[in-house]
Amino acid sequence: GxxxxxxxxxxxxxxxxxxxxHPCIDNAIGNDxxxxxxxxxIFLTGANMAGKSTWxxxxxIGLYLAHIGFPLPAKAMRFSVREGIFSSINVAxxxxxxxxxxYAEVVRVKDAAIATSTGKHLLLIFDELFKGTNVKDAYDxxxxxxxxxxxxxxCLFIVSTHIIEVGEALKGHDNIQFKYMPTTMDNxxxxxxxxxxxx
Length: 199
Known about the structure:
globular, 4 helices, alpha/beta, 6-stranded mixed sheet, single chain
């Protein structure tokens, strides 16, 4: 079930994959991804345990494997060469440096912004931005960061959040794709499909 990816020049600025899965999960559910300069931002929402973080990790792992010439867990992948992958997933505090969880997130976003401003072709993944602070500040921060990064068309960005209201404020941006991982209720038990949907 693994395949080799096809590499394109960085200027193509695209990432397409069919049935991309996480390589460390038995019987993993695959999803498709399609990004380019005209739709270079994915805004991802969904409940806890719906599969957002796993999907984002699958993308980063798949793209990394593609860059080193290894087969990857997908039916097919085409990608333009990236000059780096930036992720902010499970960012921890740092007692030694005196960084709270929130401050560690801010530093990571700042480092990503500096890297993005160099003009390099990057993949940047942010999982639940600013979850280390209150909802109001997390809303403002997530909105500002997503809008700011969306202006860099040479990079591909994926941002996840529980704060779906941010999506409403981003609807005027044509290059942002809105995706979610659904949850259904079976009586009082949540069920997860792990299948990405538009919206």
